[in-house]
Amino acid sequence: MRVLPVVNGSVRLSTKEYNLLGYRIPKDILIGFSHQYMSIMAAHYPRPDEYIPERWLAEKGDHLYYGKPNPFVMAPFGFGVRSCIGRRIVELELEMIVCKMVENFKIEWTSSEPI
Question: pTM surpassing 0.85?
Answer without folding.
Answer: no
